[in-house]
Amino acid sequence: MDAQRLRKAPNIAIVGSTSLLGKELREMIENRGLPMGRLALLETEEYAGLLQEFAGEIQITQVISPNAFNDIDIAFFTCGPEIMQAYVASGAKIPDLTIDLTQAGLDGSVYLHGISDPRILRTERYFVNPHPAAIVIGRILAHVHDKFAVESVAATILQPASERGNAGVDELQEQTVSLLNFQQLEKKVFNGQLAFNILPEPGFSAATERRILNQLEAVFGNTFPKPALHAVQVPVFHSLAFSIFINVSNGGELGPHFAKHPAFEMHDSSESASPVGVVGSDKIHIERLRATPNGSHALWAVADNLRIAASNAIQTAEHIMLAPTLDA
User: Fold this and answer.
1) Domains in the chain, please, with CATH?
2) Over the stretch 273-286, which tens digit does the pLDDT of each residue have?
3) From CA 96, how far away is CA 75, in angstroms rounded?
4) E strands of the chain, at which residues?
5) How confident is the model at residue 328 (pLDDT cuts 50, 70, 90)?
6) With 276 labelled, which of 38, 173, 245, 282 sits at a CA distance of 20 to 30 A?
């Protein structure tokens, strides 16, 4: 890692560049105009040699290896968690400055842009990008707590197939086609029929809930009580949806408070917030914000899971580049 180059135009690697998250990150870096020098697109041997376009130029996908990180200043890991775990288990060296989006459960500094203490960017080297559901819930609770003290939270998380990577999206598509053609279903990724159905997926959902809670605790500590979470798998390709109940100690209208913040977009009944409708948006979309008979606040929230994760990672990288005391 070159500290001077890092501040001006870092060399960047994207590990898992053909994954759904890797593609989103690559497109956002290009569209955002992030100052950068060289770009390395890395993959497993199966996908090495593929041609990908970036900024009008053709890039050749390389094999993930320690040598591939030579002269790299920032490495984004967007591959599947099993690939990240295998890479670490092999004893291979992690790049000096890494932003991990894999949700592989490795130890690192969890960084939620705009909420985490930016001083850790000056000293830490391995950053865990929060789960996209942790980003959404964290931003909502931080904003509510800023004005209304949060007493309790309960959230149902509706997970899209893309949270299981390319394989999850492919299986949902194949199941849909098979059902419409009266053919037998493939059930390699999910525990049952997901197409036209909802699955509890207890193993995957429980692990997701634990990860979200751990990451929220890492970011917020004991600022407010831990939320009660219940994640389920729904037959949607992209975007997370949430049904959230929040109790606050001091009353007030939450709607105008959300409407003033650029991270949120409020919807009325004439323009519904749906998983399909928010694809490509960096914002958290909120609808049906209302008071319940027991005095809590209920709301429906939707966010593009891929884009909101990639956006946080890029913002983390941008602020690392500005960190004035970062040493090589």
Assistant:
1) 3-106 (3.40.50.720), 133-305 (3.30.360.10)
2) 999 999 999 999 99
3) 8
4) 12-15, 39-43, 51-54, 57-60, 62-63, 74-77, 98-100, 109-110, 126-128, 150-159, 228-233, 240-248, 264-266, 284-291, 297-303
5) very low
6) 245
